[in-house]
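Justification of resources, computational component.

The compute hours requested in this renewal are based largely on the per-chain cost of generating structure records like the one below. Each record pairs the submitted sequence with a full structure-token output. That output is archived, and it is also reused by downstream analysis tasks.
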Amino acid sequence: MSGSSQNRLSLTRIIDGIDKSIAAMERIIMATGVILMAINTIANVVSRFIFNHSIIFAEELNSIFILLVTFAGIGYAARHARHIRMSAISDALPTQTRKILMIIITAVTALLLLVLAWYSVQYIMSLYAKGRVYPALGLPVYISYLWVPIGLFVTGIQYALTFVRNLQRREIYLSTNLREADAQELEVEI
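The structure output for this chain reads:
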């Protein structure tokens, strides 16, 4: 095996390892967030019917869980190529042009998501400086927004990994583990 092939194999293993680690974290975060949101909502409904009063902090807590699930979910959607794609024009292009387009799209998307992550950190720092607190929970508001830069950063990394995968392989990859050809077969089956 040549040095170039070994380097490519090592890079592929590193990318796969990063991807699997991020995927495991996303599954845990999303599952935990959805379960806690369901428990909180059910407890609030029961409290309303039995005690005739809502749990004071239930709405604030659910808004935190919604942020958590949403921003963990964008990384998950990127990993499984589940984001909405406007592919009518790109599907009509020749394979090589689609490949170049996918490389550009994944690079630009990764860059934009990482920039948004940076700006969201700046926003969180401004919330921290203002000292805003949830009235019922008494928690600082900035804590609930910590999921935003994490989700944007993880999704940016996911697109960056897809960018690298597209540079490495001849096939067109919609995500690190989903080739365009496989996605088209799945669409036909559905």
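The chain has a mean pLDDT of 86. The radius of gyration is 21 Å.
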